[in-house]
Amino acid sequence: MVSAPSSDGLIYVPPGVTRSAKIVISGSFGVGKTTFVGSVSQIPPLRMEERITQASAGVDDLARAPRKTTTTVGLDFGRLHLSDALVLYLFGTPGQDRFRPLWAGLTEGALGALVLVDTRNLEASFEILALHEAQGTPYAVAVNLFDGAPYYQLDEIRQALDLDPETPLTTCDAREGGSGVLALITLCEYLSHQHAPAHAPAHASVLEPRP
Amino acid sequence: MSGPRRDPDLVRPYVRTDGRVRAHPDVRLETVVLAASGPSAGLGADARAVMGLFDRAGGGGLAVADIAAALEFPPSAVRIIVSSLIDEGLLTRPVPAGAGQPETDLLQEVLRGLRALV
Ligand SMILES: Nc1nc2c(ncn2[C@@H]2O[C@H](COP(=O)(O)OP(=O)(O)OP(=O)(O)O)[C@@H](O)[C@H]2O)c(=O)[nH]1
Ligand SMILES: [Mg+2]
């Protein structure tokens, strides 16, 4: 379904695609966001470079106006060709907290976010969850299973992260595309239940035949 | 990164030449655009670079993010350039098949597509 790249490496969205959707892959520093995007994407993952300007007050700046520095932030993304008419873009958020100002542009219009967490540093995820909540981005959480990371029951993790009872919590291996797709399905099932009109059975999608 | 870097302050010269300072709110990173035909005289260098990506598109599209990655332009600048090129009729958004009919639920379409992969 994905066409071959043109001579300059561009892989076009096929003619006939009329809709595009976006899911954000978020999480704290080093949880595997770039790995996840790369293994799930059907095109080689791409990178954009955004520039942000930040005030930086160094010691010798105290007497003067704060100096502005421009930083380049790499943003990874990938693409799935889900049907003849639909593409799904996956965007990884930058891990470092000083790049949080970029989040608004990434999450704007997203179906939702998949938050990757690492059991070796669950506390680092609190801020990420709080940011999504503040921005009104619905999310599911996936524990990225690192080799040698401590193993906890999911309900222990749910408690540690103080997740709402309805927030999906699953596991994945970010290096494995199939596992990533399952985590995305978990997120989208949750989102579709949220959107379901009150009179429709919330679990109707379960009855759909598996291809 | 090899080769010469682009102008580190892309947005400003563009804005100066074209007057558009903001992107359309619905021209986002994942928004797909296609080439349309229209008068392309007088385009700035950045806009011409964007249009040049469509030379071999064969009717295919690119999202704002794809354009930003291919040209090494900041995505915030590409959103503005693409918005302007839509205004000028040089780029267009794909028209949904069966326009006028109620669209099927986007999430259900995404779910169906994802389930087909497992
Ligand atoms: N064992 C194991 N290693 C992983 C997994 N996912 C990622 N890694 C490794 O963890 C490191 C960090 O992964 P990245 O994908 O770069 O993480 P990131 O979240 O994009 O990091 P930042 O963008 O810097 O925040 C890399 O060396 C990966 O190879 C996993 O599921 N299992
Ligand atoms: Mg990364």
TrEMBL record, chain A:
Mind telling me which InterPro entries this protein's record contains?
Gliding_Motility_GTPase (IPR052705), Gpn (IPR004130), P-loop_NTPase (IPR027417)
Source organism:
Streptomyces typhae
What protein does this entry describe? Answer: ATP/GTP-binding protein
Q: Which residues form the signal peptide?
A: none
SUPFAM superfamilies, sorted:
P-loop containing nucleoside triphosphate hydrolases
Tell me the keywords, alphabetical order: GTP-binding, Hydrolase, Nucleotide-binding
Gene3D superfamilies from the UniProt entry: P-loop containing nucleotide triphosphate hydrolases
Give GO terms: molecular function aspect only. Answer: GTP binding; hydrolase activity
Q: Fetch the PANTHER family from UniProt.
A: ATP/GTP-BINDING PROTEIN-RELATED, GLIDING MOTILITY PROTEIN MGLA
Describe the family membership recorded for this protein in Swiss-Prot or TrEMBL: Belongs to the GPN-loop GTPase family.
Keyword Magnesium carried by entry: no
TrEMBL record, chain B:
Q: Which organism is it from?
A: Streptomyces typhae
One of this protein's Pfam families, by short name? DUF742
The record, for InterPro entries, names: DUF742, WH-like_DNA-bd_sf, WH_DNA-bd_sf
| Signal peptide positions (record) | none
The protein, known as:
DUF742 domain-containing protein
Which superkingdom is the protein from?
A: Bacteria
